[in-house]
Design brief:
Blueprint lengths: L13 H11 L4 E3 L6 H5 L7 H5 L4 H9 L16 H20 L5 H14 L10 H12 L6 H7 L2 E5 L9 H9 L4 E3 L1 E2 L2 H4 L6 H12 L6 H19 L3 E6 L9 H12 L6 H22 L2 E6 L1 E2 L4 H7 L7 E2 L5 H12 L7 E5 L5 H9 L10 E3 L9 H14 L19 H19 L7 H21 L4
Helix pairs in contact: 1-19, 1-20, 11-12, 13-14, 14-16, 17-18, 18-19
């Protein structure tokens, strides 16, 4: 029997162990997609206890705790204000609930992530359970009380060199700009996330345009104004804070062609208070996405498309807790034709940006990997990327499947690798988890005689996927 999560965790053959320990293990991290707070990094906050670091805002854990039958007050927290002592007591109760939940998370990535985090940040190898809960609570909290465990130092402990947060065009990027001016050793960059600008069917769309107009400094009365506002804000993100990527969540409908005149008519209809058909919403979104993609291409930034989330399924809980609280799941719509048409709408004029495609439904892995091959072009290696396993696919099985499909239908060595997509400052061992799975997969192919044991080449390939490829792809730099 192997020791639980030892030095060779997930490394099942000698080649894998060599590739990981000699090449992958020491590589820095470029986390190019997450939902961390630039303000918390600037202020270099410290957590009072492990519950605050682990359970505040982590909907992955919340879903598991609900499944284990715990009440909402032990998941998202109690209603109303608590005194500091009451807060500490409540946080301990929540941690105990998490300890009971995680003991039952057999085969779930949360189990591995939790214990990697305990090992890498706190030097705790003891498995978390109700029996060890108090000991681990005290040990973690003792460490967290040290200045060495501020969020900046947590990032440094995992050798994070760059990270990209997710930001609406309306944001002023105040803390990103302060961090840039300060010259922090960990580079904190924004990502341009303009979903609300093209989701024209949303009830609060007019209110969002008011906010965007305020950020831009001019009223938005037509399609041309909207496009100028988005372009202005994009340039602000790049100029003031070094933005390298955009990000888009595509849900249910993706693209239909529409001229500016057609999109303007749809805009006018919506702003007059009329309801739009599904096809009108698709046309408007298609027009804006094509426009934005061409702007990204002109500025050399990458476009991320996250496809297939079915959001806010539980209306009662949405009303009670709001979005992003653990009530999203996997959609199953078909979209290959629309996605192809969207990419072609930019590529046909030579204005397709570097593009990363993610799907939430593993059924679509082969489709996306094959789609990438339709729009590759020099001089960029892997210009259109089949993105790493995302969200509900972000587990051992999903990562292995993504690597196998990517290798079978494209070229694994051009991959830009892993990201956390996380709201937690303790999430960065997920890069290690991915790297171990990557090394093990390549090691298996070598050990089974499917690829020669060219360790120098394979080691360099591993290092590129871990860090160098993302650096080159996003910044045009090898160092």
């Amino acid at each position: 029997m192997k020791t639980f999560m030892n030095r060779d965790f997930l490394l099942t053959n000698e080649t894998a162990r060599t590739l990981y320990h000699s090449y992958a293990e020491q590589m820095p991290v470029f986390d190019y997609h997450n939902h961390l707070s630039a303000r918390e990094i600037y202020e270099d906050i410290r957590f009072s206890n492990i519950t605050q670091a682990w359970l505040y805002g982590d909907h992955y854990k919340w879903r598991a705790m609900r499944t284990a039958g715990f009440p909402e007050e032990l998941i998202t927290g109690p209603c109303g204000e608590l005194s500091p002592s009451e807060r500490e007591e409540q946080d301990y109760r929540r941690f105990c609930a998490w300890a009971e939940t995680i003991e039952g998370a057999i085969g779930n990535p949360l189990y591995h992530w939790t214990h990697l985090e305990l090992q890498r940040y706190f030097d705790i190898t003891l498995p978390l359970s109700p029996g060890t809960c108090k000991e681990i609570w005290d040990s973690c909290n003792s460490r967290l009380s040290s200045p060495d465990f501020s969020v900046r130092n947590l990032l440094k402990k995992q050798n994070v060199k760059s990270l990209c947060t997710t930001n609406d065009p309306c944001e002023d990027l105040h803390y990103h700009r302060l961090l840039k001016k300060e010259g922090l050793s960990v580079e904190v960059l924004p990502t341009f996330r303009p979903d609300k600008a093209y989701l024209i069917g949303k009830e609060d769309y007019p209110q969002y345009l008011d906010a965007l107009a305020k950020a831009w400094g001019n009223p938005i009365g037509c399609l041309a104004d909207l496009k100028e506002a988005l372009t202005s804000r994009l340039d602000f993100f790049i100029r003031e804070a070094g933005c390298l990527l955009s990000d888009h969540s595509l849900e249910g409908c993706i693209y239909a062609p529409a001229t500016d005149g057609q999109a303007q008519a749809i805009f006018e209809k919506r702003m007059s208070g009329s309801c739009l058909s599904r096809e009108e919403r698709r046309c408007f979104q298609g027009n804006i996405l094509t426009f934005l993609g061409k702007q990204y291409a002109a500025r050399g930034i990458a476009m991320q498309l996250h496809i297939g989330a079915l959001r806010n399924n539980a209306g009662r809980m949405l009303q009670s807790l709001g979005p992003d609280t653990g009530f999203d799941s996997i959609d199953d719509f078909t979209y290959a034709g629309e996605l192809s048409a969207l990419l072609n709408s930019m590529d046909s004029t030579g204005e397709l940006p570097k593009t990363i495609l993610y799907c939430l439904n593993q059924r679509d892995y082969e489709m996306l990997a094959a789609m990438c091959g339709n729009f590759q072009s020099a001089p960029c290696r892997g210009k259109v990327q089949f993105g790493t396993a995302w969200w509900f696919c972000d587990n051992k099985r999903g990562m292995e499947a993504q690597l196998e499909v990517l290798s079978a239908l494209s070229l694994l060595p051009v991959s830009i690798g892993m990201l956390t997509d996380s709201r937690s400052f303790l999430s960065f061992p997920r890069h290690e988890y991915y790297r171990r799975i990557l090394c093990n997969k390549i090691g298996q192919w070598v050990e089974e005689g499917e690829y020669p044991c060219h360790i120098d080449y394979l080691g360099k390939t591993i290092q590129n996927i871990c860090y160098n490829n993302a650096l080159q792809y996003l910044k045009g730099s090898d160092a």
